[in-house]
Amino acid sequence: MKIICFTDCLGSGGAQRQLSLLAVLLKRKGHEVLFVTYNAGEHFTPDLVAAGVARVRFDNWPKLFRPIALHRLLRKFNTDGVIVFQEAPSFYAEIASFFNKRWRLVVSERNAIPPNYVKYPTRLLLQSHRLADVVTTNSVANRIQIESEVPALRGRLHTIYNAVDLERFRPMKRSPNSSGFNLVVLSSHKEQKNFEKLAQAVKFLLDDNTLPTFFIEWFGGEAAPGWLYRDKTCCDKIGISSVVRFHPPTQAPEVVLNQADALILPSLWEGLPNAVCEALSVGCPVLMSDVADARFLVQEGVTGYLFDPRSPKEIAEAVKKFLLLSGEAQQEMRVEARKFAERAFDPERYVSEYEMLLDYSQCDKGSSKSVRSVR
Q1: Which is higher by pLDDT, 374 or 266?
Q2: Which residues contact 160 (CB under 8 A, 6 or more apart)?
Q3: Do the Cβ atoms of 191 and 225 come closer than 8 Å?
Q4: Is the predicted pLDDT of residue 239 greater than 90, yes or no?
Q5: Residue 240 to residues 184, 198, 202, 218, 233, Cα–Cα distance (Å)
Q6: Cross-strand partners of 95
Q7: Radius of gyration of the chain (CA)
Q8: Are residues 153 and 193 located together in one domain of the fold?
Q9: Could you tell me if 99 and 201 lie in one domain?
Q10: How far is CA 73 from CA 62, 69, 331, in A?
Q11: pTM attached to this predicted model
């Protein structure tokens, strides 16, 4: 098939990681793949180049003309199928497909936003999914939300969990952290990521003199302007700058995660976060918010701990439980995490499900699809 993968950019976000991985996997399966973006951001470009995936970037597309330009490109490429991640690109692709569509359109929602955080423009964009052939989500929670918001989509919604390159993200030989526990966050800076509550939790932990030394290393750029400054200011105000350090996004998350004792993700909402999937794949225990499909990802006390992201005390308690585990118990968590990842995040399963949705002859449009349990 001739397939176009379309999103806003190739920045370091989770949606971009999953779509670029999908493009590489489709290319390996023998499809002709073209990756199209319209904004700056090249974090995952090396992955596409290494796999031989063709790339088109339209920096000069005015917003109002993006659907027209995309329609022309789709016709010129003689496209069989289009896969789109992210809200705005999905809207552009849906408008581009309104007239004289000759391709199958698969769009994807990637964030299970709680109803009280959903803004009116987002509700309108959900309605535009009526123009798509298929809408995928990467969490069951998100699919249920969309079914509730737009009942007409119920027969076109499919849940496909993320994939991880299990060769790249694998356990490596690691040395003990002699300076203290190394807890990492791989996330952009924005409201959703809930730094303030994490900072308050860290303050509780520092006031507990029974705990071993620990450090939190936060790797990520700004998804929303001003949030990195706010997070640094919050850190200084609460008095935790001695144990919290901020870094740019990393090009080698597999190395960072292998050097970590645990990953922390304190988000107020999520879909199926790549950082968690990748951490489990390298055998890194996870401490994360009990939101969306978190209970599928993290088995309490086996591969990590869950907490209420609105409660600094609960966040602190989850971190404390981990810090007080014996070395043997932490190692058992690492082993169980990798076992789970091998069952849950298989790339072959991921690419095959998208191939099926692009193929009219195989796709059953009559029912929603949810992933099977891998416990």
Answers
A1: 266
A2: 136, 137, 138, 350, 353, 354, 369, 371
A3: no
A4: yes
A5: 15, 11, 7, 13, 11
A6: none
A7: 21
A8: no
A9: no
A10: 15, 6, 51
A11: 0.87
What token pair was written down for 98?
């309104």
Retrieve residue 327's tokens.
């070395």
Q: How far apart are CA 204 and CA 317, in angstroms?
A: 9
Where do the DSSP E strands lie in 187-331? 214-219, 244-247, 262-265, 286-289, 304-307
* CATH number where 212 lies: 3.40.50.2000
Amino acid in the structure at residue 188: S
> Largest Cα–Cα distance of the chain, in whole Å?
68
pLDDT digits (tens, 9 = 90+) for 316-365: 999 999 999 999 999 999 999 999 999 999 999 999 999 999 986 455 44
Whether 115 and 32 share a structural domain? yes
What is the crossing angle of helices 274-281 and 327-344, to 10°? 110
CA pair distance 24, 33, nearest whole angstrom: 8
Burial of 169 (0-12, 13-18, 19+ CB in 10 A): buried
Residues 6+ apart with CB under 8 A from 131: 94, 95, 97, 98, 105
Judge whether residue 224 has pLDDT over 90.
no
- Mean pLDDT value across residues 232-253: 96
In this structure, which long-range contacts are made by residues 122-126, counting pairs with CB atoms below 8 Å and at least 24 apart in sequence? 122/87, 123/149, 125/87, 125/88, 125/90, 125/91, 126/150
What is the rounded CA–CA span in Å between residue 246 and residue 223? 15
Could you tell me the residue range of the domain that residue 196 belongs to? 181-344
**Is 24 contained in some domain?**
yes
Note whether residue 319 is domain-resident.
yes
Residues 158 and 198 in one domain: no
CB 106 within 8 A of CB 134: yes
Residue 10 lies in a domain: yes
Within 8 A by CB and 6+ apart from 3, the residues are 26, 31, 32, 33, 34, 79, 80, 81, 82, 83, 358
Structural domain contains residue 192: yes
Summary mean pLDDT of the chain = 92
- Burial (CB < 10 A; 0-12, 13-18, 19+), residue 62, is exposed
SS3 246: strand
Query: How far apart, in whole angstroms, are the C-alpha atoms of residue 212 and residue 183?
Result: 12
- Are 121 and 143 in contact by the 8 Å Cβ rule? The answer is no
Cα-flanking dihedrals φ and ψ of residue 107, to 5°?
A: -110, 165
